[in-house]
Amino acid sequence: xxxxFSGDIIYHFIAFLxxxxxxxxxxxxxxxxxxxxxxxxxxxxxxxxxxxxxxxxCISKGRWxxxxxxxxxxxxxxxxxxxxxTLYFTAENVALLYTTATNTSxxxxxxxxxxxxxxxxIYRGEHTLSRQRVVGSLLALVGMAAVVLNGHFVxxxxxxxxxxxxxxxxSWAVYSLLMKRALEHYSAIMITRKVFFYxxxxxMPYYLFCPDEAWIFAPLGARAQEVFTAAVTGNLLFLGxxxxxxxxxxxxxxxxxxxxxxxxxWIYFNxxxxxxxxxxLLGERITPxxxxxxxxxxxxxxxxxxxx
Length: 308
What we know:
Layout: H1 2-7, H2 9-35, H3 39-60, H4 71-95, H5 101-108, H6 111-122, H7 131-149, H8 159-182, H9 188-209, H10 222-227, H11 230-257, H12 260-264, H13 270-282, H14 288-305
Helix pairs in contact: 2-11, 2-13, 3-4, 3-9, 3-11, 4-8, 4-9, 5-8, 6-8, 7-14, 9-11
């Protein structure tokens, strides 16, 4: 097992870097919210930036592939865009309006456990649900809870917000399951481009019900010129180019290189990187609970990767 882990160490390190970037996005999102953008507008703009740049790169490199092998595969791509894009980001962001950030983090970051359960149900022959993996995932889950709660073991129940957070959790778990199938026949580049496209298609009906937010499609309008300052544009570019285009592409590639359960378990590290980033930029204190939780996550990750 140690030899296997050593051979995959580069993929684990890359997965960690992706999660680290995703953990830092809360700062940029908070700045954009303060500037006057809504959660849905932020999602739309970051995915639009990512799709345009990725499409341009594919065309310039002669790697543009429009059609899939069948309409069933195209539906699979659409499902990936909806679950990993539209539904996940919308449910997670709106959940924050109705419940606490602690509740949202605890529920959303538990998605590796649900991904493991779904994979075990669908791919029974691959022994995804081994006893050791269950123990490892539960240890990582306990560690993640310790990091997020930070010694304050008080949860404020909010049915609507918690249901939305759980919806985001299941959406990402389903996305991981569907990605395993899609990667059997298509490249990470094509899949990622399709995810951005269908993620955008899925969010468009929202603007029919909330036309007041559609001003983002008129970049020369007065409202857009007021909001899109240099700082806001820079934050959007980071979310679109780095956190979306680059990270989604790399993440989908890592899923192909690593076992799906092992790769998805890196989501448990999201709160760790978030707190480290907050400590670095905002001066937030690192507590013993953070260190204890990190240790549990590391042990749990080791057990999940160990196929002994």
